[in-house]
Amino acid sequence: MRRPLVAGNWKMNGSQAESSALIDGLLEGTATVKNADLAVCPPAILIPLVATKLKGTGIAWGGQDLNVNASGAYTGEISGPMLRDFGCTYVIVGHSERRSYYGETDEIVAGKYGAAQQHGLIPILCVGETLEEREAGTTESVVARQLDAVFNKHGIASFAKAVIAYEPVWAIGTGKTATPQQAQDVHAFIRGKLRALDAAVADKVQVLYGGSMKPSNAAELLSQEDIDGGLIGGASLVAEDFLGIGRAAN
Ligand code: 13P
User: Fold this and answer.
1) CATH number of the domain at 5-248, please?
2) pTM here?
3) Alpha-carbon distance 196 to 183, whole Å?
4) Closest protein CA for atom 1 of ligand 1
5) Catalytic: 154?
């Protein structure tokens, strides 16, 4: 049985005061979430604050991106060892916003995935199709291509220490959620692809859903066989909503 993971992607949101209040709210209600692990991925500049507040609690934290290099002349960048130094467990790689706004190719994402693991972080590898790709009937081939870039570089065994997030781009921040069946179909496709390479790894890897997930639709999504949690954007900025999604796994 895979234990669900509910991870918050705060994106570029939050002051110190807001983040501190949000964490306090999560800590107050965390005991009500019994059947899911919780994690938050704040903007890098807020990681020290979040790490200080979450240390020794059951809530993990992570980064939203990392540079492929461990250190050096890469102005503005954050490395895997830096994230580890601040106690991060996870790091998101290949989010669709990074792929589309910052030109991250499958190859670049695969490099970041490897760098994360090399430095002891669990990558949350995001995959997903745009609306045009879905309407053209290419959802599976797009997701397959995004996964293959990582399989080819790092092998199936690497997924024993990784999380996958299926985030249909058309459902991110739009209020338009994939139906539980639409999501389950792609999740099953992803797991099937893994299973063809290594059944044990396929059974173990958490495949999260992301895209307008909220307390009102979480239970139905999380009850699907191959959906093992969520990567939450907007709703992760409101403690009660994020906790409500966690409780939907109870
Ligand atoms: P929303 O939950 O705001 O749709 O964002 C999803 C997402 O992109 C999480 O990484």
Assistant:
1) 3.20.20.70
2) 0.98
3) 20
4) 233
5) no
